[in-house]
Amino acid sequence: EWGDRGGGAGGAEGCRRGGKGGRVQPVPGARPRRAIPRSGRNAWLSLYRLWRSNSFQRFHLVMQRNFQRLGPIYRETIGTYNCVNVLLPRDAAQLFQSEGIFPRRMGIESWIAHRQIRNHKCGIFLLNGEEWRSDRLILNKEVISPAGTRKFLPFLNAVAQDFVTLMHRRISKNTRRSLTIDLYGDLFRFTLEASSYALYGERLGLLEESPNAESQRFISAVETMLRTTLPLLFIPPGLMRWVNTKLWRDHIEAWDTIFKHADKCIQNIYQEFCLGQPRKYSGIMAELLMQAELPLDSIKANVTEFTAGGVDTTAMPLLFTLFELARNPSVQTAIRREIAEAESQGPRELSKVLNSMPLLKSALKETLRLYPVGITVQRYPTKDVVLQNYCVPAGTLCQVGLYAMGRSPEVFSNPERYDPLRWLSKEDNSFKALAFGFGARQCIGRRLAETEMMLFLMHVLRNFRIDTVSKADIKTVFGFILMPEKPPLLTFRPID
User: Fold this and answer.
1) Strand 179-182 and strand 464-468: pairing?
2) Which residues make up each annotated binding site?
C-alpha cells in the first residue's frame, strides 16, 4: 500500500526520532502505520459504495460511526484519497507540533485544474511551500491581524445594521408584528454583502427588496461549486471529465462565474485606485494594491478565494446559531443582557465592544463545535509523528475529525447539549475549538468571519426575540461544508 511506505521501517519499534547530533533513535513501543485500524479494504470499492449509496452527504456521520467502531484513530482509502483520521485534541496538538514552517493541507485537485485550464494563479488556499508562506505573511497584515481587523469593522457593522432595518421593514408589513421565515437565502445575501464591502469597499445592494440578478448568479455559483467539489475530491479531474462530464462542466462553469464576479469588483476598485481618488480606507483589496507587495495576479487570486469562501463559512454558522438560541431562550436572554451591558459603557471602538462580550463569542464557538463548517482539519506532518501510539510517517495525509470530536463524550461532557458556558470555565480547552484550523495555516478569514458574525448577532439580538417552530435537532448534510438538510423556520419579534 502506498501509504505504508516507510511506515514499517522500524518494524516493531515503529517511529524513529532524531537524537543529539542527528542520531536516529527508536520511539519505544510505537507500532507501525499498517497496524492502525482500517475502514474498508479496497479504495475503489469504498468509493463505489459511497457513490452508490449517496453517502457523500453523510460523510460526517460515516466518520463519526467509524470512530465509534474503530476507536480514536483509523485509516482509510477512498479512490485516490488516502489518510489517517484522529479524534482527540492531544493528537491535533501532535500534528501542530509536527507541521513545520510550511504547513500543508490537502490539495483540491478540481480547483487547481480549473486554475490551470483558465490560466489563473492560485491563492494561498491552494498553494504550499515557500510561495504559500510569502503570500500569507503579506496577507496576514490586512486580513487577520488586530490592526487590519479594526479597519474593516465599520464596514461589517454598517451591513449588520442594514440587515436589521430590512427585517423591521418586513415585520412592519405584517399585522401580527412578527415574521416567520426560512432565513437561509437572506443570510447568504448578508454575508456576501458584508464580505464584499470589507474586501472591495463596495456595496452590492443585496439587502434591497429586489437584489440584482448578477449577485444572485454569484450566490448560485458558490452553491454549485461547493456541491460539485465533494464527489470530485476522490477522483482525478482527468478521469472525472471522462466519466461524468456534466458534474465536471457544472463545476468549471461555477468557478468561471465566481471569477467573473470577483474580477468585476476588482476592476472597479483598481480603476478608482489608478485615478488617484482621495485616500481613505476602502477595503482590503485597496490596501493590498497600495502596498504593492504582491503582484496584481496574486492579489486577484487571493481576493477571489476570499470572496468565494466568505459566503458559506459565515452564513451556515449564523443559521445554526440563530436556531440554537431560538430553542435555548435562557442563553438568548443572557447574551442580550451582555450586549446591553457592553453598550451601556458608552461610545467605544467596535473592537473593544466585541471584546467585552465573551458569552456571545462562546456561543459562536459552541455552534462551531456542534456544526463545524468543515468536518475535518488536514495536515501532512513534516516528520514522523506518534498518534495514539502508532507511528505515522512524514508526508501522510492526517485529518482531525471535527464533527466527531465536537460530539464525542470522550472530549466534551454532555456533548449534545448547547452550552456556551463550557468555553468560559477553567477546564483545559486546548485544541478543542478547531473550526478555523490551527497554527500558521489557520483560516486567514477567521477574524473577518468572527467579527462579521458577532456584529450580526449583536444587532439582531438587541432588536428581536427569536423563536423556532420546531425544537427538534436539525438533520445535517455535508456538501463540502456542513449545512442543514432542511433550513429551520425562525420567528422574529421586535423588542419594544
Assistant:
1) unpaired
2) 443
